[in-house]
Amino acid sequence: MTQAVKKYLLYFLILVYVSGAIGYLFRPEFFIPFTPFTLILTCLVFVIHQPISSIKYVFSFLALALVGFFIEVVGVKTGKVFGNYYYGNALGYKIWEVPIIISLNWALLVNIGVLTAGYLSSQPVLLSLIAALTISFLDFLIEQVAEGMDYWRFLEGIAGGHNYLSWFLITFLASLIFHQRLIKGDKKIALIILSLQVFFFGIIYINKLFNFVSS
Q1: pTM, rounded to two decimals
Q2: 3-state secondary structure the chain
Q3: Domain ranges, ordered by start, for the chain
């Protein structure tokens, strides 16, 4: 894939996030069904900038996706990992009550967490700590709007404290185990995608708090 194509796909992704954030405020029922496609596009743009010629990198990405999916299955079935929750319909087709697309999200989040943390440290434990904090912060933002976007719902109404503790511990361990392979990726793309997700969910959360736009 040429550099020009990669660049235009990145520009298109930025447009999708900006227009999606604004559009969701006014017509959420129109934009929510596009969620799986947006996540696939996000992963595509991210992956084409990574060292996919490396078998070790590809293995790490797929391993994170697979492990993340089964963690979610255990979480949904038992309520012991993140709390008692179930998935809505916005994330698409499910197996064992878990959307398949969530596996890509796990791999993506750990990847961007490790790469953005790489700006601040190369020491494995500190890097993994920063990555886990970064991912947990993004999860916090998503949790504030997830129910309204039909991503998932907690039976208690909100995510409990052990949800965030579990996210932190799992992503810390995943980062620590896979960082040597993931850190060779493109930090700039990771930072851009992280910023886009913070922007997207941040805008929706702020509107939820202050009701600037009533949809």
Answers
A1: 0.93
A2: CCHHHHHHHHHHHHHHHHHHHHHHHHCHHHHHHHHHHHHHHHHHHHHCCCCCCCHHHHHHHHHHHHHHHHHHHHHHHHCCCCCCEEECCCCCCEECCEECHHHHHHHHHHHHHHHHHCCCCCCHHHHHHHHHHHHHHHHHHHHHHCCCCCCEEECCCCCCHHHHHHHHHHHHHHHHHHHHHHCCCCHHHHHHHHHHHHHHHHHHHHHHHHCCCCC
A3: 3-210
Instruction: Give residue-wise pLDDT tens across range 60-91.
Output: 999 999 999 999 999 999 999 999 999 999 99
Burial class (CB in 10 A: 0-12, 13-18, 19+), 157: exposed
What is the rounded distance in angstroms from the CA atom of residue 149 to the CA atom of residue 72?
Answer: 19
Nearest to 33 by CA among 194, 202, 151, 201: 151
